[in-house]
Design a protein that fits this description.
Blueprint: E1 2-8, H1 10-14, H2 18-28, E2 31-39, H3 42-48, H4 58-65, E3 69-77, H5 80-88, H6 101-105, E4 114-116, H7 120-130
Antiparallel strand pairs: 1-3, 1-4, 2-3
Bound molecules: adenosine-3',5'-cyclic-monophosphate.
Adenosine-3',5'-cyclic-monophosphate binds next to loops.
C-alpha cells in the first residue's frame, strides 16, 4: 500500500480550504494516517525543497511555505502518489484542469495551495522530514 506526503500550504489554510481538501482526499477513498497543523520552520522548508535550491524562485518559495501554518498529512492507499498528484492538478494552475484542487481554487504557481510527493523516493523522504516514526496511526478503515 502506497503512502504519500500531502501539505495544505499556508494560502490553503488562510483561505479556509483545509476541510475541502481533506474531504476530496477522503471521498476518493484514501486513508489519512497522520495529520498535523504547524508552522513549518525555515530549515525544514529548505530541506523539503532542497531540489529547488538553485532555482530563482527558491527564496520566495521558502518565504511562502513558512508564512503561516500548514497542514501536513500522510495519505495512504493504492496508487496514492500518482492519484494525489492528479487530485492536486498541474503545478502551474494555468495548466490545471477544472475539478482538480488547483484548477478549482488557484491562479498562480507561487500560491498553488497544495503539495504532494512526486515519486516513491520523494514520498519516503518527505514523510521522514515532516513526521516521526510513531506519528502515523495504524487502523482499519471499513469501506
Ligand atoms: P510544489 O508542488 O510544492 O513543488 C515545488 C513548488 O515550487 C511548487 O509546488 C510551487 O509552489 C513552487 N514553484 C515551482 N515553480 C515555480 C515558479 N516558476 N515560480 C514560483 N514558484 C514555483
Amino acid at each position: 500500500m502506497e503512502e504519500t506526503y500531502v501539505m495544505v500550504k499556508p494560502d490553503g489554510v488562510q483561505r479556509g480550504l483545509v476541510g475541502e481538501i481533506i474531504s476530496r482526499i477522503e471521498r476518493r477513498g484514501f486513508k489519512i494516517v497522520a495529520l498535523r497543523m504547524n508552522f513549518i520552520d525555515e530549515d525544514t522548508a529548505k530541506e523539503h525543497y532542497a531540489e529547488h535550491k538553485e532555482k530563482p524562485f527558491f527564496d520566495s518559495l521558502i518565504a511562502y511555505v513558512t508564512s503561516g501554518p500548514s497542514v501536513s498529512m500522510i495519505v495512504q492507499g493504492k496508487n496514492a502518489i500518482s492519484i494525489m498528484r492528479t487530485i492536486n492538478g498541474a503545478t502551474n494552475p494555468v495548466d490545471a484542469s477544472p475539478g482538480t484542487i488547483r484548477g478549482d481554487f488557484a491562479i498562480e504557481t507561487g500560491r498553488n495551495i497544495v503539495h504532494a510527493s512526486d515519486s516513491q523516493e520523494a514520498a519516503r523522504r518527505e514523510i521522514s522530514i515532516h513526521f516521526g516514526e510513531k506519528e502515523s496511526v495504524d487502523y482499519r478503515k471499513i469501506d
